[in-house]
Amino acid sequence: MKNKLKIFKKAPDLLDEPEVQELLDYCERLEDELIDLKFEKEKNKELIMLDMIKEVIKGCDAIEKEQLEHERFGYEAPNYQETISNLKNYISEVCRINKIICNENFYAF
Q1: In this predicted model, what pLDDT tens digit does every residue of 4-58 receive, in sequence order?
Q2: Domain residues for 57?
Q3: 22 and 53 part of one domain
Q4: CB 55: neighbour CB atoms within 10 A?
Q5: Same domain, 31 and 50
Q6: pLDDT digit string, tens, across residues 59-92
Q7: Fewer CB within 10 Å: N-end or C-end of the chain?
Q8: In the chain, how long is the greatest CA-to-CA distance?
Q9: Does residue 108 carry a pLDDT above 50?
Q10: Verdict on whether the full-model pTM lies above 0.85
Q11: In whole angstroms, what is the distance from residue 36 CA to residue 42 CA?
Q12: Is 35 found in the same domain as 57?
């Protein structure tokens, strides 16, 4: 919303008028509704799934790097069972939060 002081810079006393206050309040509510609408429109399940896939790929890359370090330096081997469990929990939580249907067959790959 435009700054009300800029809009009324030539007549600041109009800001005290009840009709002007009502109009400014109405404009502010409309702006809030517009922002909410844009967010709802852009926050679709496809974007959520793409974001989740990017996070999963980053996690897989980290495990691959850890495995390479293990092989190169003889570090303790990564706990893949814990990693898989964490990955499943992450996917389930993102699906729950965003109301994406996710069941046991979802993990069958």
Answers
A1: 667 777 887 887 889 988 888 888 788 777 766 766 666 667 777 777 788 888 7
A2: 45-107
A3: no
A4: 14
A5: no
A6: 787 788 888 888 888 877 777 788 788 888 888 8
A7: C
A8: 76
A9: no
A10: no
A11: 10
A12: no
